[in-house]
Amino acid sequence: MNFDACISLDPTDDAVPLYKQIYNSIRDAILDGALESGTRLPASRALAEQLGISRMTVVNAYDQLLGEGYLEGKHGSGTYVASHLPEEFLRVQVRKSSAVKTVSRSRRLAFSDYGKKLARYSERIAHHHSASIVVPFQHSLVAAEEFPFDLWAKINQKHLRFSSRRLGGYGDAAGFGPLRKAIAHHLRSSRGVRCEDEQVIVTAGTQQAVFLIANLLLARDDKVWLEDPCHLGTSDVMATVEAKVSHVPVDDEGFNIEKAKRDRRPARMVYVTPSRQFPLGMTMSLQRRLSLLEWANDNEAWVIEDDYDSEFRYSGRPLPALQGLDRADRVLYVGTFSKTVFPGLRIGCLVVPPDLIDVFIAARALNDLHAPITDQMVLADFIVEGHFEHHVRRMRTLYRGRQAVLVDQAAKHLGGFLDVGPSDAGMHLTGWLPKGVDDREVSTRVAEHGLRAAPVSRYTNRKLERGGLLLGYTAFNEKQINAAVRKLAKIAEVEFNF
Question: C or N terminus of the chain, fewer CB within 10 Å?
Fold first, then answer.
């Protein structure tokens, strides 16, 4: 047999090495049926002479085909096309006559108690947690074009090349050790959090952290106090654990503990965003923080501190984290890298009191075992080598400038329709509408024109005196902000007569 007729080589093709061309030719011939199972291949030396190439090139091609199961060697006899090809073990053979037809059916579904809760809220949860659309004024997005992805890729490549043993097994449910150490150091120095490495648990973002806390520390019908307005993800979690939720309105000093204490039934848990209230942006005063901690200690209640974007403060020193003031171990601190690195990373952290470490690690293990090890390795180096702090400092300057552009343009083009004032922190501003204007209707109209400004009323359980829109600015450059403000002004003029 003139076997080399099955092989097509192009020595001038620098993109595909010769051994790979031989591999591709033989594999294609096997899959096409030109080389049947049991066909004997020529010896590597003989084929190399026929093709006029190095024997090692043929050997490399044969080795790859043998390793993948296309060929099989018979001792003392030679190399043959395998009797069973690898594709046979990867694909199910389906006969046309037995193909299953998809039909719609109506049936009674028997969910668990938890499944029933999720089914009840599934439409709302799907709406609240859909994929982000990167259009002005979508909030909570980073300036992705400014992130040092080349550096990130270089660190990633280093670990892929030299960490095969570590990547070949499962990781610690609590998180990659060096990352936990790096996070603990960062939180102690930048946020005043009181913790050791062992108290840090790496999570798949804030959402998983709140989910674990609620499921471990709340029983059905336990009272929970939530800020009003409040982050939707937290509201959804509390609904699915069937907690009795009381919505406590915030004021200029943040969560109002004195108003909360009027509730006849003490709460088992409180959720707060003290560094920058979401979504309104005020900071909880020191007096309020101390009062909340005193109350939590006296009532043996838990406090969830969501410190979601505290790194982005543009003036003055931030107050230390609520957890750093806690001397009774009642605070569970939640942080995220979605706002500082990039949302797709899905890495956050949870700092728990020492006596809760074991149970939270067990819950983390059962929930999804651990976050991807490579991502944790890269983030650990990114922090330890100083790249994280450098990036945050750059973004703080960039975001301050973008906020100033938004405030300036809003004053020029949206006066009378949207009151947009500056903020000394955060990633979005709240624009307040005139009394009587429905912010949900405005948000809907805005979306029809390619903008995305969430209504404040979506996050509250009470009727607001004025509606408002959340205006994200961090992910958009000056040109995009200018154009978006002008478009919003046109919508206000045409749709709402402003």
Answer: N
Verify that 187 and 314 share a domain, yes or no.
yes
Residue 454 counted as domain residue: no
Quick one: which of 259, 253, 304 has its CA closest to 281?
A: 253
What is the separation of C-alpha 234 from the centre of its chain, rounded to a whole number of angstroms?
15
Bridge-based pairing state of the strands 331-336 and 302-306: parallel
Q: Are 114 and 353 in contact (CB under 8 A)?
A: no
pTM of the model: 0.84
Q: What are phi and psi of 280, to 5 degrees?
A: -80, -25
Q: Which structure tokens are listed for 185? A: 């150091």
- Same domain assignment for residues 198 and 81: no
pLDDT exceeds 70 at position 371 = yes
Distance of alpha carbon 441 from alpha carbon 401, whole angstroms: 30
Query: Which span out of 16-25, 60-69, 347-356 was modeled with the highest average pLDDT?
Result: 347-356
Domain boundary among 387, 408, 433: 387
Report the alpha-carbon distance of residue 433 to residue 498 in Å, rounded: 11
Residue 472 is assigned to a structural domain of this protein? no
pLDDT digits (tens, 9 = 90+) for 215-251: 999 999 999 999 999 999 999 999 989 899 999 999 9
Number of domains, the chain:
2
Tell me the backbone φ, ψ of residue 318, rounded to 5 degrees: -75, 155
Higher-pLDDT residue of 424, 96: 424
- Nearest alpha carbon to residue 262 among 273, 251, 276, 246: 246
List of residues 6+ apart from 428 with CB closer than 8 A: 137, 139, 140, 279, 470, 471, 472, 473, 474
CATH number at residue 16: 1.10.10.10
Output the average pLDDT for the chain.
91
Cβ 365 vs Cβ 383: under 8 Å:
no
Which of 34-38, 88-92, 327-331 has the lowest average pLDDT?
88-92
Q: Which helix (H) or strand (E) holds 452?
A: none
Residue 123 in domain: no
Show the domain range for 266. 162-387
Is residue 137 classed as helix, strand or coil in its secondary structure?
A: coil
Task: Pick the last residue of a domain from 387, 410, 430.
Answer: 387
The secondary structure of residue 282, as a DSSP letter, is P
CA-CA distance, 319 to 274, in Å (whole number)?
A: 9
Q: Residue 69 CB: number of other CB atoms within 10 A?
A: 14
CATH code of the domain covering residue 211: 3.40.640.10
CA distance 293 to 328: 8
440: which 2 tokens? 């949900």
Burial of 3 (0-12, 13-18, 19+ CB in 10 A): middle
CA distance 285 to 269: 20
CA distances from 234 to 88, 124, 153, 215, 403 (A): 47, 13, 33, 12, 27
